[in-house]
């Protein structure tokens, strides 16, 4: 009997060892995927609390990992983990620059102060809505829908500016004109403006190549314009799932640009347009190198000149601005950025962009293969390279910035119009923004 017991003990112990080894191996296999989830949660919690002053558990994506996350303040930062212990990530608040994912609190330097003195929209009083504009905004907020459908639509703020004057404005409960909201990929369009400012200052040109010292192969031929127009040819996956290149870059890479630069060529340079947040972050590392500035570059070179005092552009752990995704601002300040684009970069009588920059960067130049036939150089347009119109509800000359979860900034030069719609709409089939533009134009006559 004693011998049999020993055998059973050895069997049980052996099975336990196998289970522990298998579980450990499985965890380390899954850890990179889990870290993209915990990284998102930690950064989201920090930014909502520090920048937007909203509950830190809001705005989490519909993901099966979410119920198992443990999120909260920890040691001066914001920590997220699976079950409170696995794949933990930490986000740190940094004065002037929002939040950064890093093992320890990063030092990003001083942030250039921004006042509203140069912002003509900052002090304007919202006018009483005309019936037509009231109806246009009612449609954008889903007043005709039941409560569940309105929540799926998720509109949180709309601002309409006509010829420099605010003509309509509305916010969802819990949001005001002073609530900064994340623009996600609308930051790419602002990066195009920032690039234009630096081109005008002679810091770089669109044809510059040899952008990374480690590129000693064909990647050395990638130009600034290739990155702006997303035709670099670098391997990329913009799918927002755990462990893809986009989520790995944003939530598990301290040096995002180096991660992007390490990707091999999938297509010949210039042959294929493929949407890539990586291209924009790589571009911002080039802007950083050419100017010698880090996280403060967007504030010093552009945002302070516009007087968008609510703007917070977050950076990665190396101090490079996350130009693909992490610009926060109030709806009015987003509209101010749109007004700057509509004015072709002339602000308070001073030209900040090269003349014709907006015409150039909102003109589509389609390579032989294009994922997005109306993507220009940081902006989406209502015309393809052949001249065909994308959406008949919009004027032919309309162009816009577009961000994840339903962020839009429309510029319509022929109507002297800028329209901002911000929200949280991961479950919405139609965020009604094109109809909003059409309804506003009709209401304004």
Write the layout of secondary structure elements.
Layout: H1 2-52, E1 69-74, E2 77-82, E3 86-93, E4 99-101, H2 131-141, H3 147-153, E5 155-162, E6 165-171, E7 181-182, H4 186-200, H5 224-228, H6 245-252, H7 256-261, E8 272-273, H8 277-291, H9 297-306, E9 312-313, E10 327-329, H10 331-342, E11 346-347, E12 350-351, H11 357-361, E13 369-370, E14 380-381, E15 399-403, E16 407-412, E17 417-423, H12 433-444
Parallel strand pairs: 8-13
Antiparallel strand pairs: 1-2, 2-3, 3-4, 5-6, 5-17, 7-10, 9-10, 11-12, 14-15, 15-16, 16-17
Helix pairs in contact: 1-6, 2-12, 4-8
| Tally of contiguous helical segments | 12
- The N- and C-terminal alpha carbons lie at a distance of 96 Å
Oligomeric grouping of the chains? single chain
Which residues sit in consecutive blocks of at least 5 with pLDDT less than 50? 17-25
Percentage beta strand: 15-25%
Which sequence of SSEs, written as H and E, runs from N to C? HEEEEHHEEEHHHHEHHEEHEEHEEEEEH
**Secondary-structure-derived class:** alpha+beta
Global Rg: 24 Å
Q: Helical proportion? A: 25-40%
The outline comes out as globular
- Count the strands? 17
Give average pLDDT, whole number: 93
Major sheet: 6 strands, antiparallel
Order of adjacent strands in the largest pleated sheet: 6-5-17-16-15-14
Structural key phrases:
alpha+beta; 6-stranded antiparallel sheet; 12 helices; globular
Structure described in brief:
The protein has about 450 residues and is α+β, with helices and mostly antiparallel strands. Helices cover about 35% and strands about 15% of the residues.
């Amino acid at each position: 009997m004693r011998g049999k017991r020993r055998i059973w003990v050895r069997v049980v112990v052996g099975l336990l060892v196998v289970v522990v080894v298998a579980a450990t191996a499985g965890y380390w296999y899954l850890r990179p995927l889990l870290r993209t989830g915990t990284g998102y949660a930690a950064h989201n919690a920090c930014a909502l609390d520090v920048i937007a002053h909203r509950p830190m558990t809001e705005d989490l994506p519909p993901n099966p990992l979410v119920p198992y996350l443990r999120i909260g303040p920890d040691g001066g930062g914001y920590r997220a983990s699976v079950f409170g212990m696995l794949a933990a990530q930490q986000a740190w608040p940094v004065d002037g620059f929002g939040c950064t994912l890093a093992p320890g609190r990063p030092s990003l330097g001083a942030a250039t102060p921004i006042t509203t003195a140069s912002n003509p929209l900052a002090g304007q009083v919202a006018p009483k809505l005309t019936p037509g504009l009231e109806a246009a905004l009612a449609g954008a907020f889903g007043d005709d829908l039941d409560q569940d459908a309105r929540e799926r639509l998720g509109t949180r703020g709309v601002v309409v500016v006509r010829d420099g004057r605010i003509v309509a404005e509305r916010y969802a409960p819990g949001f005001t004109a002073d609530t900064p909201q994340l623009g996600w990929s609308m930051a790419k369009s602002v990066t195009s403006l920032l690039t234009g400012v630096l081109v005008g200052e002679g810091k770089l040109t669109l044809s510059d190549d040899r952008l990374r010292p480690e590129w000693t192969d064909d990647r050395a031929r990638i130009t600034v314009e290739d990155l702006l127009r997303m035709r670099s040819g670098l391997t990329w996956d913009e799918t927002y799932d755990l462990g893809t290149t986009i989520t790995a870059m944003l939530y598990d890479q301290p040096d995002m640009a180096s991660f992007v630069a390490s990707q091999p060529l999938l297509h010949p340079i210039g042959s294929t347009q493929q949407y890539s947040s990586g291209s924009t972050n790589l571009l911002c590392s080039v802007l950083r190198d050419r100017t010698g500035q880090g996280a403060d570059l967007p504030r010093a070179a552009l945002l302070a000149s516009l007087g968008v005092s609510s703007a917070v552009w977050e950076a990665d752990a190396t101090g490079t601005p996350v130009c693909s995704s992490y610009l926060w601002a109030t709806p009015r300040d987003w509209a101010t950025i749109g007004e700057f684009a509509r004015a072709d970069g002339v602000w308070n009588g001073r030209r900040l962009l090269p003349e014709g920059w907006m015409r150039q960067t909102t003109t589509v130049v389609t390579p032989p293969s294009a994922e997005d036939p109306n993507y220009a150089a940081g902006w989406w347009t209502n015309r393809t390279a052949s001249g065909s119109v994308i959406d008949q509800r919009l004027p032919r000359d309309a162009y816009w910035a577009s961000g994840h979860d339903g962020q839009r900034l429309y510029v319509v030069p022929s109507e002297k119009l800028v329209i901002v719609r911000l929200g949280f709409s991961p479950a919405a089939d139609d965020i009604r923004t094109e109809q909003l533009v059409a309804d506003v134009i009709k209401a304004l006559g």
